[in-house]
């Protein structure tokens, strides 16, 4: 009975399906992929297609190289050296790998320097950080979103806010994830 109750409490899924023409200038496929940072996979369904169009080939080839890092502690993403070496000197992307945003704790580092954590209720409370309930959480709030601006943190490494976040990631609730990473030097 308890298992059945837990299944009902699982947050809703959000599946976005977009019908698009890659050759059309007003097509929204690029915008949808680039603005949903917690996605690490995009599937294409092209019926009766023997050869890919050059637009689709170019889109896939644009992604560039990425790296897979196992068991990376979250506090490594907020160090002074990391922020100045990667976040400020290009577009750095990081996304937890093999996690489901609606069930697991996930992290995304966006190219604009925002570190976004999607945490379950227990982990959110254990970190002691401020956040907001996820809008996809349903009636009973089970997921919380914590957003940290690394560009703002880099200027104030001695601030109470930085010390609080660093303490939370290192000592209070040390979190480790497998990450997919990509960096484009500007």
Description:
The mean pLDDT is 79. The chain has 186 residues and is of the alpha+beta class. The protein is globular and about 55 Å long. The N and C termini lie far apart (55 Å). The protein has helices at 2-9, 29-35, 54-61, 80-87, 121-127, 150-155, 160-172; strands at 67-73, 90-96, 106-109, 114-120, 132-133, 143-149, 176-185. The longest helix has 13 residues, at 160-172. It has a domain at 72-185. The chain has a 7-stranded antiparallel beta sheet with strand order 1-7-2-3-4-6-5.
Itemize the secondary structure elements and their pairings.
Blueprint: H1 2-9, H2 29-35, H3 54-61, E1 67-73, H4 80-87, E2 90-96, E3 106-109, E4 114-120, H5 121-127, E5 132-133, E6 143-149, H6 150-155, H7 160-172, E7 176-185
Antiparallel strand pairs: 1-7, 2-3, 2-7, 3-4, 4-6, 5-6
Write out key terms for the chains shown:
single chain; 186 residues; alpha+beta; seven-stranded antiparallel beta sheet; 7 helices; 31% helix; globular
Give a quick summary of the entry.
With 186 residues, this protein is of the alpha+beta class.
Low-pLDDT parts are none
Biggest sheet: strands, sense, closure? 7 strands, antiparallel
Report, as a whole number of angstroms, the end-to-end distance: 55 Å
Strand line-up of the largest beta sheet: 1-7-2-3-4-6-5
Multimeric organization = single chain
- The number of strands is 7
Order of helices and strands: HHHEHEEEHEEHHE
Q: Which of globular, elongated, flat, extended, rod-shaped describes the shape?
A: globular
Count of separate DSSP helical elements: 7
Average pLDDT: 79
Rg from Cα: 19 Å
Provide the β-strand percentage band.
15-25%
Structural class: alpha+beta
Helix content: 25-40%
């Amino acid at each position: 009975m308890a298992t059945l109750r837990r299944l009902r409490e699982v947050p809703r899924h959000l599946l976005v399906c977009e019908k698009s023409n890659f050759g059309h200038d007003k097509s929204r496929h690029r915008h949808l992929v680039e603005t949903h940072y917690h996605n690490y996979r995009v599937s294409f369904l092209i019926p009766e297609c023997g050869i890919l169009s050059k637009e689709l080939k170019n889109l896939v080839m644009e992604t560039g190289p990425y790296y897979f890092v196992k068991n990376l502690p979250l506090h490594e993403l907020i160090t002074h050296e990391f922020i100045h070496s990667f976040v400020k000197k290009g577009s750095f992307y990081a996304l937890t790998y093999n996690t489901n945003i609606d069930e697991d704790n996930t992290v995304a580092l966006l190219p604009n320097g925002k570190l976004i954590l999607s945490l379950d209720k227990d982990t959110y409370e254990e970190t002691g950080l401020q956040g907001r309930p996820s809008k996809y959480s349903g009636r009973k709030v089970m997921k919380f979103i914590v957003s940290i601006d690394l560009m703002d943190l880099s200027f104030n490494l001695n601030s109470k806010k930085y010390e609080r976040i660093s303490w939370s990631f290192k000592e209070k609730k040390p979190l480790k994830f497998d990450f997919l990473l990509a960096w484009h030097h500007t």
